[in-house]
Amino acid sequence: MEKILKIGKLGENSLKRSVLKQLHKRRAEVVVGAAVGEDCAAVKLEEGDLAVLSTDPITGALSDIGLLAVHITANDLACSGAEAIGLMVTLLMPEGSLESHVRSIMRQIDDECGKIGVEVIGGHTEVTDAVTRPLVSVTGVGRVRKDGFISSGGAEAGQSIVMTKWAGLEGSAILAADQREELQKRLPDALIDRAAGFSQYLSVVPESRIARDFGVGAMHDVTEGGIFGALWELAEASHKGLEVFLRDIPIRQETVEICNHLDINPYMLVSGGALLMTADDGEGLTEALMQAGINAAVIGHITEGNDRIIKYKDEVRYLDRPGADELYRAGKIGG
Questions:
Q1: Taking the CA of residue 311 as centre, how many other CA atoms within 13 Å lie in the half-sphere pointing to its CB?
Q2: Is the distance from CB of 19 to CB of 125 less than 8 angstroms?
Q3: What are 25-64's pLDDT values in tens digits?
Q4: pLDDT, tens digit, 9 for 90 and up, residues 225-262
Q5: Alpha helices by DSSP H, 3-97
Q6: Partner of 202 for a Cys bridge, out of 98, 273, 287, 314, CB 3.0 to 4.6 A?
Q7: Do 170 and 249 have their domain in common?
């Protein structure tokens, strides 16, 4: 019979069985990691390293919340040029949750950590009536050499803007999974299945490593607010303008079909898995990424001043501050 968890901290037996047993040690830098009774983790850094920290909360479906939680935080670290070392995971479960739900989420988290060589080094698990669905808050710890730190605010006028993968990736995957019945009214199952599979592209760690070694001015991952939101944030952080050509922004046909059916804008749809970079040699960076099997394109360039412009044929659109993600309009939000 499934064990229903009571409100409060997870009991020691459940903690060992459904949390700690799911985790694997992977990093030599972790001196003190996840264990019963440990309040803090300890990570050893080499002389000349900077510690880089990032944190994100996420709510979502049991089927993918662990996957999303890992990559959202790991991607933030990667965009700074840092190598992720460990994650601190706080898991809050609603009243009435089953222990198997906790086990499933922690297994997801550890599986995704394994793909990018990261370790869960601590955290907290609790059942509470303060939430109505699972909430995972992840704090990531990474390291980077002092002279290797990259910020979102490092873009320089004249640099090309390079984008990896496709607009609306994460949002398409979420909508394909959560609104399948609605989408099936118009779209074929094969298209919906392909979109649901976009979750395999959510990590930007591989392309960030290539960009770091190639040499870039700035990196910024594309999350809530979509490509338009991320472009505005990149320009704002760098105190620069930009000129982008809509026709050059890569987008999958599956995303176009889903967004058309739900009447939402794919360029303002959460796009985890896509990465924006600026480089003096945008074509060279794009070629390096494509040779590694990562889809990439030059979509525009950084300008002096403050104008943030999107061009399509003879039309010109000025970007605004990012608003609510289109997933909210569709009734779903991933993180």
A1: 11
A2: yes
A3: 999 999 999 999 888 999 999 999 999 999 999 887 788 8
A4: 999 999 999 999 999 999 999 999 999 999 999 999 99
A5: 12-18, 65-79
A6: 273
A7: yes
Residue 131 CB burial class (10 angstroms; 0-12, 13-18, ≥19): middle
Same domain, 108 and 166: no
Query: How is residue 230 written in tokens?
Result: 């991320």
Residue 200: CB atoms within 10 A of its CB come to: 11
The total of structural domains in the chain comes to 2
**Which residues have CB under 8 Å from 260's CB, separation 6+?**
none
Buried b / exposed e along 28-51 (16+ C-beta atoms within 10 A): ebbeebbeeeeeebebeeeeebbe
Say yes or no: 131 and 15 in one domain.
yes
CATH number of the domain at 28, please: 3.30.1330.10
Note whether residue 3 is domain-resident. Answer: no
Beta pairing partners, 221: 275
291 neighbors 210 (Cβ within 8 angstroms): no
68 neighbors 334 (Cβ within 8 angstroms): yes
Q: Give me the CATH number covering residue 238.
A: 3.90.650.10
As given in the structure block, the two tokens for residue 192 are 């919906």
SS3 173: helix
Helix (H, G, I), strand (E, B) or coil at 156: coil
Instruction: Measure the CA–CA gap between 313 and 200, rounded to whole angstroms.
Output: 33
The average pLDDT across 135-148 equals 95
